[in-house]
Structure to design on (524 residues):
């Protein structure tokens, strides 16, 4: 099928120009798993042109996973996430730290499975910290640490949920953890339908936690040490899905005029829908938009494009939509893919150049073969195997009622548990599909970057799993071999080296030979 070429005007040219600057390629590839892949996916584009994909599982044998595609869409690596329970483990959020590592929020089996994990960009687990609850989101904070949000019962399994906020350093050590119950009232703020979704750091250091609460959506503001500032509820007739698998049914995004709160659902039994609410610094709603759609179309994710506009990704399967909003969250356009029934959509994303990423489940899945496709396309050409059809999205004015929440006091959070997180390599074959050119980089050796760099005493080698022995050849800037060592983990001691540029050549746990570059500096 020839893809349609709708006229998206200047945006299409902007997308194409970003693609040429970054040198990324459009692709459409088929991936066949020896085991089932995740049931939903999200994407994160890296400055290198590679793309991280991550998603949640359902129950065994469907596990969540995290992996990476090279700029041509060929699979670099994929890892199945195992964290106890019966398979409902997955990655709910990934953030690129820019040093060759990825900070991940692990959503394990409720009530006590979940973690924060640091994974390098070759798929090796650097460390994980079990938080004893599903972790919905984790972000890097301005002070160089990170915070994670989660939710669980503190009395007994099945009792009321408490919101939890945990601050960690980037070595995985817990600095503090807080939970937020309503004192003396188990039927007020504490509710079985309360669950955290994500967290946003404001310019003043305050942290905003977005959470669902029965038919309301809430925002809790705490300062940098976790003390409560205020809590607000927003009554819109919102449906939030407590146990939604994959994607974010609500999201907080910063704006020069406040903070946008995007959410899913206007009527759980009727048409699908989304909304956007602009909130000021005190948590008051100053503007609202509603977006209704036929079918079961609800928000899965929202991302800001390089030009400042928003893209909402909604629905799954044949009922889905790519919804484009201007910087004021007003509707510009919306489209869907024509073949959403036999090639069901289960993942969305936006590239750093404005191109779209989508995951599709392909027909003939079985216990031994689970094929699906991932595609990256820009709006000027459209997807390789589909037409882009108009999605009938209607914008309306949303009347938002802001409800002050109860007076809250932060209580000590639960102590970390000790469940071991493992990342298991998946067996996956990749083949170009629908005109993809496939892989163009046939270099037998891949250059990576050790971290941290510069360093004074130790660097970590990407892709080197803990407890695995492998040979390392250390060379200087002129290519002269300085020594060969046998490593028992990712950490390479360099304290005795003079200041300068170096490379370490080795072979990762799986994959091609690697050359990790780094700078050695003297200790001050």
């Amino acid at each position: 099928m020839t893809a349609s070429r709708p006229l998206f005007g200047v945006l299409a040219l902007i997308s194409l120009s970003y693609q040429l600057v970054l040198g990324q390629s459009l692709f459409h590839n088929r991936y066949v798993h020896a085991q089932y892949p995740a049931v939903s996916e999200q994407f994160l584009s890296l400055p290198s042109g590679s793309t991280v994909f991550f998603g949640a599982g359902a129950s065994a044998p469907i596990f969540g996973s995290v992996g990476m595609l090279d700029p041509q869409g060929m699979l670099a690596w994929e890892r199945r996430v195992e964290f106890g329970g019966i398979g409902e483990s997955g990655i709910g959020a990934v953030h690129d730290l820019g040093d060759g590592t990825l900070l991940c929020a692990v959503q394990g089996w409720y009530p006590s499975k979940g973690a924060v994990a640091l994974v390098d960009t070759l798929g090796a687990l650097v460390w994980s910290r079990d938080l004893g609850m599903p972790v919905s989101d984790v972000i890097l904070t301005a002070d160089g640490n990170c915070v994670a949000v989660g939710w669980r019962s503190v009395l007994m399994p099945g009792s009321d949920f408490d919101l939890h906020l945990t601050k960690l350093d980037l070595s995985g050590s817990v600095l503090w953890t807080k939970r937020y119950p309503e004192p003396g009232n188990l039927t007020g703020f504490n509710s079985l339908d309360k669950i955290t979704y994500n967290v946003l750091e404001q310019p003043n250091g305050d942290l905003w936690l977005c959470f669902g609460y029965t038919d309301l959506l809430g925002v809790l503001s705490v300062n940098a040490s976790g003390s409560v500032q205020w809590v607000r509820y927003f009554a819109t007739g919102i449906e939030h899905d407590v146990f939604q698998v994959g994607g974010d049914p609500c999201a907080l995004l910063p704006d020069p005029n406040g903070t946008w709160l995007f959410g899913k659902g206007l009527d759980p039994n009727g048409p699908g829908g989304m909304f956007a609410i602009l909130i000021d610094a005190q948590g008051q709603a100053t503007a609202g938009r509603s977006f209704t759609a036929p079918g079961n179309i609800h928000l899965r994710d929202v991302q800001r494009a390089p030009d400042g506009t928003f893209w909402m990704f909604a629905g799954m399967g044949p009922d889905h939509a790519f919804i484009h909003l201007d910087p004021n969250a007003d509707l510009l356009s919306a489209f869907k893919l024509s073949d959403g029934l036999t090639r069901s959509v289960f993942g969305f994303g936006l590239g750093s150049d404005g191109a779209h990423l989508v995951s599709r489940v392909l027909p003939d899945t079985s216990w031994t073969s689970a094929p699906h496709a991932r595609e990256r396309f820009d709006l000027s050409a459209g997807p390789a195997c589909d037409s882009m059809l108009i999605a009938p999205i209607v914008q309306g004015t949303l009347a938002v009622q802001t409800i002050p929440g109860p007076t809250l006091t932060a209580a000590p959070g639960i102590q970390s548990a000790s469940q071991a997180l493992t990342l298991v390599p998946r067996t996956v074959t990749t083949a170009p599909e629908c005109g993809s050119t496939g892989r163009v980089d046939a270099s037998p050796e891949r250059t990576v970057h050790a971290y941290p760099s510069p360093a004074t005493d130790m660097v970590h080698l990407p892709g080197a799993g803990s407890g695995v022995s492998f040979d390392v050849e250390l060379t200087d800037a002129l290519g002269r071999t300085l020594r060969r060592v046998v490593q028992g983990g990712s950490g390479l001691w360099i304290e005795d080296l003079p200041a300068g540029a170096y490379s370490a050549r080795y072979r990762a746990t799986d994959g091609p030979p690697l050359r990790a570059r780094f700078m050695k500096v003297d200790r001050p």
